[in-house]
Write a structure and sequence with these properties.
With about 525 residues, the chain is α/β, with parallel strands linked by helices. It has 6 helices and 40 strands. The chain has a 24-stranded mixed beta sheet that branches. Strands 3-2-1-6 form a 4-stranded mixed beta sheet, with helices on one face. A 4-stranded antiparallel beta sheet has the order 8-10-14-13, with no helix packed on it. The protein starts with a strand and ends with a strand.
């Protein structure tokens, strides 16, 4: 039983009796007694009150010569900040040992009436209230009402049955070169293959506060499956399967299966190639020609001064020489032997054995490894990190390396926001007309054949716009989440960073004044610092 106290009124004034706790329960404190006296406007000598707490003998200790009026049995009602519980703490009535009147007792009706007055209407346990009055225990918190806690749900999860990493790491051969036969980047599939499974968001269940108000569960992320060509969705919208054999990839959040166009070379014999599927070139791509694919592009031979654009990944086994022109652009990852005098842009990562006098952008990371592993001249930008053996030339060739900013993410967010705004504007323009048609139909007004056709067209347009806005808003939220992610961006040098190299992390820059070996460039305390490799 908790320790407790009782006010005593005697001939010598007003006293307090303090009773020691039993069974390891908490003892009473001086602070609780003085708060009680303050609430009842009874003056006291705090030293005397403290002395009574120290003695704990159940004997009266006088703290004032003034005789207090009788104090009835009372309680403090505490409503939790989250409104999910109500507790009472009772204090005994005063005792008069001078032959006068004792304090009055309260009863359960008073407590219930107080709850009604405070609009506590849910989860009240009258049995617990009655049990106190059957067996009183003072200075103890008694929970007499409990709300119903909400059940928190869980975020939707999409399980892709193929590789979707924007940070692949190709296997290296024993000599340090990339093993192009075992990249495991291109995902092959056959007709009927399961490509993705959605576990829908569990929205949770509402709870109820002691006031009877609904309490929302925590917000969860809702997702849906998005798909493109050669992919079908199940009736329950929970799975995606391949409608044909080919290459499967994730392009701007959509699962797409691409057919594969196999070519020996791309040159005057073929002309420029623009194919909605994937392109596999066994030989070379001649200067001045272009290959554009909705899926992947694989090139076994040489590439010089050509334009390659792929919705997914690009793999170039022999490397690329831009010859001061051309462009290599992939929505996914780019893997190549070397990059020289070229412009390269990847939504994911760029993996190469060397980069020379080129402009390279990667949404996630740039890895320059292998026998050479150097970046010399040009400008390399990565959203998260750059890992390299050598940066810059011994002759002070200007080389710039930037990390910490996805070069494409902000542009994609800006485009999505513009597109959503335009769709909303179109929706608001047709809404009044659609609502007018709905009102007429509800009123039983018959539409002519032309009016009915027009109404059907408008309603289909409204549904399409709403679906478009929902899909793009979902994509926008995912991109904004990525933008707000705080990646510890860095540049790792597993060899030497030569003088003259400019390292930029976020908005901070550092020009390397003397060679730095086996180090990592990081942001620390508002500056770019050199740290040892992990």
């Amino acid at each position: 039983m908790n320790g407790y106290f009782q006010l005593v009124i005697g001939k010598a004034g007003t006293a307090v009796k303090v009773f020691e706790a039993t069974d390891g329960d908490p003892d009473i404190t001086t602070g609780e007694i003085t708060e009680y006296l303050d609430r009842n406007r009874i003056g006291y000598d705090i030293i005397a009150v403290n002395e009574a707490v120290k003695k704990m003998g159940g004997e009266p200790v006088y703290f004032t010569q003034n005789k207090a009026n009788p104090v009835r049995e009372q309680y403090l009602m505490t409503i939790a900040d989250d409104q999910m519980s109500v507790s009472l703490r009772f204090f005994p009535p005063s005792e008069n040992i001078a032959g006068g009147e004792n304090g009055q007792l309260t009863d359960s009706k008073e407590v219930v009436g107080d709850l009604v007055l405070k609009k506590i209407r849910f989860g009240v346990d009258k049995d617990i209230i009655d049990s106190f009055f059957a067996k009183r225990e003072y200075c103890k918190d008694i929970v007499i009402a409990r709300g119903k806690l909400p059940r928190d749900g869980s975020d939707a999860v999409i399980d892709y049955k193929f590789g979707v990493s924007k940070r692949p790491h190709p296997t290296l051969n024993a000599d340090g070169s990339v093993d192009y036969h075992n990249l495991n980047i291109i995902n092959h599939c056959t007709e009927g293959d399961l490509l993705a499974v959605l576990t829908p968001a569990d929205m949770g269940d509402y709870g109820t506060s002691v006031y009877g108000n609904q309490v929302k569960p925590k917000a969860v992320k809702v997702k849906s499956l998005h798909y493109g060509k050669n992919v079908k969705i199940s009736e329950d919208k929970l799975t995606l399967t391949a409608e044909t054999s080919g290459h499967v990839s994730l392009q701007e959040g959509k699962v797409v299966v691409s057919n594969v166009l196999n070519l020996k070379n791309i040159d005057v014999a073929t002309g420029n190639i623009d194919y909605e599927g994937s392109i596999a070139v066994a030989g070379n791509i001649a200067s001045g020609f272009s290959a554009k694919a909705g899926g992947n592009i694989e090139v076994k031979g040489t590439i010089e001064g050509a334009v390659l654009e792929a919705g997914a990944d690009i793999i170039m086994e022999r490397g690329v020489n831009g010859a001061g022109g051309g462009l290599i652009k992939a929505g996914g990852n780019i893997v190549t032997k070397f990059i020289e005098n070229a412009q390269v842009v990847a939504g994911g990562s760029v993996n190469a054995e060397s980069i020379l006098h080129s402009n390279v952008q990667a949404g996630t990371e740039v890895n320059v490894t292998g026998n050479k592993g150097f970046i010399v001249g040009g400008h390399v930008v990565a959203g998260e990190k750059v890992c390299v053996i050598t940066i810059g030339g011994e002759m002070g060739t200007t080389t710039r390396v930037d990390v910490g900013v996805d070069p494409t993410l902000k542009a994609r967010i800006r485009d999505l926001m513009k597109s959503i705004g335009e769709a909303n504007k179109s929706l608001q323009q047709i809404k009044p007309t659609v609502e007018g048609i709905v009102k007429k139909l509800k009123a039983g007004i018959q539409l002519s054949a032309d009016q009915a056709a027009y109404a059907k067209k408008l309603m289909a347009m409204k549904a399409q716009l709403e679906n478009d806005i929902n899909d793009k808003s979902e994509n926008l939220m995912e991109l904004q989440d990525k933008l707000s992610d705080t990646h510890d961006a860095y540049v790792s040098v597993n060899g030497i960073c030569n003088a003259g190299t400019v390292i930029t992390i976020g908005e901070l820059s550092m020009t390397v004044s003397k060679p730095v070996k086996f180090s990592k460039f990081i942001e620390k305390e508002g500056d770019v610092r050199v740290a040892p490799l992990d």
